[in-house]
Specification:
The chain is α/β, with parallel strands linked by helices. The protein has helices spanning 35-39, 41-49, 67-76, 127-141, 160-170, 186-192, 213-221, 244-252, 316-329, 335-341, 347-375, 403-411, 450-465; strands at residues 13-15, 22-24, 88-89, 154-157, 174-180, 196-202, 224-230, 257-261, 292-297, 310-313, 388-392, 415-416, 418-419, 441-445. It contains 13 helices and 14 strands.
Length: 466
Amino acid sequence: MSSNMFSFGSRKFSINRNTGVPKPARRFSIGEPSQNEASSKIHRQFRAAHEGHLPHAGLDATRASTGVVWCTERAAEFGFLDEPDKWANLGQGAPEVDDDIEGSFPRPRTINISEASREYGPTAGIKPLRVAVAKLYNEMHRKGKPSQYTWENVAIVPGGRAGLIRIAAVLNNAYVGFFIPDYTAYNEMLSLFKNFAAIPVPLSHEDGYHIHPDKIAEEIARGTSVILTSNPRNPTGRVVANPELAEIQDLCRERATLVSDEFYSGYNYTSNCDGTTISAAENVIDVDEDDVLIIDGLTKRFRLPGWRVAWIIGPKEFIKAIGSCGSYLDGGTNVPFQEAAIPMLEPELVQKEMVALQRHFRDKRDYVVKRLREMGFIISYVPDSTFYIWLDLEGLPGPISDGLNFFSACLEEKVIVVPGIFFDLNPARRRDLFDSPCHHFVRFSYGPKMDVLKMGCDGIERVINK
C-alpha cells in the first residue's frame, strides 16, 4: 500500500475571500472532482443531499425552525422586525400581557432577588413553588378526593417546550400516539429522541377534530403505550371535557401513559366563563399510580410567556426522573422568577383571574368570528377554548385557497397567520405534506389586544377584496 494513499499532499486549496487564508476546496475530499464526477447528475444529486458534503457538515438546519419561527422569518423579509407596531401578528401563540384586562391582577414590574436565588436552583424546581402548584391543583380539581398531590408530584421546568423535551427523554421504548392537527413544537420533540416511535393519528374535520374515546381504545389495542395531546386543543380551539375525558383516562389507566398539555386550560368558554378550568387532574384516582402527566405553567393563562416558568404534574416516580434529567438537558428554571410566581398561585386569586380571562377572551373571540363570517369565511366550529381559530380557506378564490399562499398574501398587508401545514406533524418525514388535509387551513390567533385584532381583520379583508 502506498504511503501517500491517505495523504493530503495533493489536495488543492482555494482562498477564503474574507480572511485571505487558504481553505479546503471541498469538505472531506482530498482532491478536486474528476470531470466525470463533476458532470454526473447522480453525483451532484448525492452531494446536494448528503450531510458530509453540505457547506456545514455538522449542521441540520431543518431542526432549527418551528412553524411560527419560519413565519416570523418570512415576515421579517417584508419588514416586520423593523416596524412591528405596524403589523398584526396573529401568528404567535401568545396572549396579551399588559394590565388592562378588567378584574385581572396586576403583574409584577419588579422582583426581589434573594441571596439564595443567586445559587443554582434544584433542577426539579424550588420546593415552595412545587408546594404551591400541588395546592392549586388539589383545590381546583381534587377537593374531597382521598389521593392528593404533594410537592413530590410536581417538577418546575423552564417553559413548555423544555417540559416536553424532559418527558420525551425519560420515556421507555414505546409507541407514542399523537394527533393531527396539533401543536407544532411536538414535531421536534417527537423526532429528537430514538427511545420511542411516533405514530400519527389523524382526526376528522367533519366532526370538529374531536378525540373520541373509541379512537383512544384503537390506539391502545394496536400497542400504543404513550398518548400525547394538547387539551384544550391547539390549533383547533376545541376541548375534550368530562365525561369523555374521564372515559379516555379510564381506558388509559394501567395501559398507557397520557401526556396532557393543558397550557390553555384557563381559556375555557364551555361553562359560561365562571372560571372553571379543564384538567385531567380531575379524573385521576391515585396521583402516584395513574400514569397521567399534566403540563402547564405561567405562559398562557397567567399571561407571562417571557418568564419561562412551567410545571409538570404526575406520579412521583415519573417526576423524580423528569426533575433529574434537567441536569443534562436545560439546567433548571430561573430561581428568582420561581420565587416571584408563588403568590400568584393562591387558589382564590387564580379563580378570580380565570373569570376575568375567560370573559375578556370570549369577547375577542366573538368579535373575530363575526368579522370573518362577514368576509365570507365558513366557521363550522366556533372555538370553545384556547384563543385560536382553525380557519378553513377552501371557499376562497384559487390563488389564496391554501395556507401557504394565503399566508403570503397576508404578509403584503402586514398580517401574520400560520399555515395549517405546520400543524400536520410529520416527525419522521415519511409523508408528503402537500397532500395534507391541513393544507387549506391557517391558524388565526386572537391572543393579541383588540386593536391588533381589528388591524389584522382589516388586512385580511383587503386580501379577500383583492
